[in-house]
Amino acid sequence: MFNGILPEIVISTAAIFFFISSLLDRKNLQRWAMGFGGVAVLASLIGLKHKYIFFHGAFTVDGFSRFFSLLICVAYLLACVIGGRLRQTDDQKTGEFYFFISISTLGLLLVTGATELLTLFIGLEISSYPLFIVASYRKGLGYQFESVAKYMIFGAVSTAFMLYGITYLYGAFGSTFLADIIPAIPTHLHDPMAVLGVILFMAGLLYKLSAFPFHFWAPDVYAGSAAEVVAYIAALPKLAAVALLVRVVSLFMDMEGLTPVLTILAILSMTMGNLMALTQTELKRLLAYSAVSHAGYILLGLLAPADGGLTASLFYGTVYTFMTLAAFLVAIQVAGDEHDIPLDNLAGLWHRSPVLAIMLVITFISLAGLPPTAGFTGKLLLLTAVWKAGYFWPVFAAVINTLIGMFYYLKVIKISLVSSTDPVPLAPPSHIRSLALALALLLLFLGLLPGGVLELAEAAIGSL
Amino acid sequence: MSPLAILHPSPLDGPYLSLIIFLPIIGAFLLFLIRSDEMSRWLALIILSLTFLVSLPLYSAFQPELPGFQFVENHVWIRQLGLSYLLGVDGISLPLVLLTTFLGPSTVLCSWRYINKRVREFMACLLLTQGILTGVFVALDLVLFYFFWEAMLIPMFLIIAIWGGPRRMYAAIKFVLYTLGGSIFLLLAIVGLYIHGGTFSYPALLGLDLAPRWEFWLFLAFLVGFAVKIPMVPLHTWLPAAHVEAPTAGSVILASVLLKMGTYGLLRFNLTLTPAASVSLAPVLIVLSVAAILYGGLLSLAQQDIKKLIAYSSVAHMGFVTLGIGVLNMQGFQGAMLQMLNHGLTTGGLFLLVGMLYERTHSRELADNAGLARLMPGFVFFLGLFSLSSLAFPGTASFVGEFLCLSGAFSHSLRLGAWVIPGALLAAAYMFRMFIKLTWGRGGDPALARDIGLRELASLLPLAILVIVFGLYPAPLLKIMNPALESISARLHGQTVMDLSAFIGQALPPGFLN
Question: What is the ipTM score, two decimals?
Answer without folding.
Answer: 0.89
